[in-house]
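**Sequence with structure:**
===
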Amino acid sequence: MTYTAPLADMRFALREVAGLHQVASLPGYEHATDDTIDAVLEEAAKLSGNGLAPLNREGDKVGAKLENGVVRTAPGFASIYKEFVDGGWNSLPFDPEFGGQGMPWLLAATVQEMWQAANMGFGLVLLLNQGAIDAIHHHGSAEQKATFLPRMISGEWTGTMNLTEPQAGSDLAQLKCRAVKTGDHYLITGQKIFITYGEHDMAENIVHLVLARTPDAPPGVRGISLFIVPKLLVGADGKPGRRNDLRCVSLEHKLGIHASPTCVMSFGDDGGAEGYLVGEQGRGLSYMFTMMNNARLSVGIQGLAIAERAYQQAAAFAKSRVQSKDDGSAKPEPVAIIHHADVRRMLMTMRAQIEAMRALGYYTAAGIDGALKHPDKEIARKTQDRVDLLIPIVKAWFTDLGNEIASIGVQVHGGMGFIEETGAAQHLRDARILPIYEGTNGIQARDLVGRKIAKDGGETMFALVSEMRALADEMKAAVGDDMAAIRTALAAGADALEQATMWVAEAAKAELVAALAGSTPFLRLAGTALGGWLLAKGALAAQAKLAGRDGDPRFLEAKIVTARFYVEVILPPALAQLGPLKAAGRTVFALEEAQF
């Protein structure tokens, strides 16, 4: 089963929900015309469907191999990566000063969904490079930008981030990797683990961003600095020269994403790898968060992407698998399983949640563009606050759903879903890493409650609740039972999200641990309610288009039906999280450690 980019739904989410036209009107995005956007989407769909997707299964079966210190990627990966670079795809959202095309992040997120859905094992190299570019662009010196950014933006070189060490997972205060100043550079020694595409054969050079401590650094996170450590040292002519003192010593054997080499990297086995300080000493972690925030949105998009891939395969199987008679017919002949009620329920559950994720993901990406480009600094600041609030929701809620939807995909296949040959199992295996990396989803929930809500007492979330209520008021003029049901549920979602935010904001001030105990249910409630809000916005736009005979009526009618299914079937259980998030703190710590 291959992959076909859902262009109709992508365009709808871009234009009717995320506000592409408003983004394109921002200073610097004038070239993001409708014709240009459509051309980019069409070509990306071809490359993802015809180039990347056919390599997905083989990449999973063969995986990446470490041979004599060299990592060989799966067959076809190096050639498709060259095609990717030659086509200019890597440079889409980046600064034209360094060779980028300067297109909106909203468009980049949409295209990224295609890459990740088609072949997530391949797409990870793009994700990490994007984050490394952002970190250098924001915090690097003029010389570092000139040396590294043009080739990383083109994709000739790729980037990584090296945070985790064997003794330090999410707790980066425990990092021990050392950096000793020698002349105009530092010598880096230590080991890093879980380094995605830390070594591979697709690009000429690999630019590692490494967190390390200088000898006189204080303990904890304040003692961490960020260094650029290239695989091949760059000469005065800007070209890669001799090999730096770093190497991949092993590859992890993983549950999924077999095509993506997850490396154990050793720095300084022969005295020290040359590294170059980024910005100021002791600010490495704050600099890396630039990269991690970007990466967390991208990981959320991966959750959406793998869900879409699983849904497409499940829907195709359900249309072709003939099994049992139709309960709604007197005829005894067996029918395709898509006629059976529970299969239809599963497919609708997958479809509705995917559309909600796509709407919220694109909306968040549009917010990044607004924060970067809006000429009114106060509006830009408030937009950034909203993006910061939404990022942990997008990362955690999307990736949890990516797992759930991939699992439903296996269920739709029945016993065949448990057999590797169908491919349904690969989606589930690949999806499982997403709630773990770039900060586990528990860390995202902690960030949402302990930082974002606590920071402003919930003010940014209350502003979203106000917009939900404004849309509910606007929908009073809409006609039909579907729209009435959607409006009623939207109002209930706004009420529940407001109550939950009020409780969390108060609890975070009074007893943080109690608030954190309920942080995951709160995040789930927030994501599901906000997804329902944006599906309601899409349903209203679809009804207006139907009335104006503007677009495919079957597609537009499906948007309304899907939104109603979501608010009546998906939303109510999530709103019931209000009780668990309040109650969790009473019992989460009630047992003694020895009782577990």
In short: The CA atoms of residues 94 and 100 lie 4 Å apart. DSSP finds 18 helices and 14 strands in the chain.
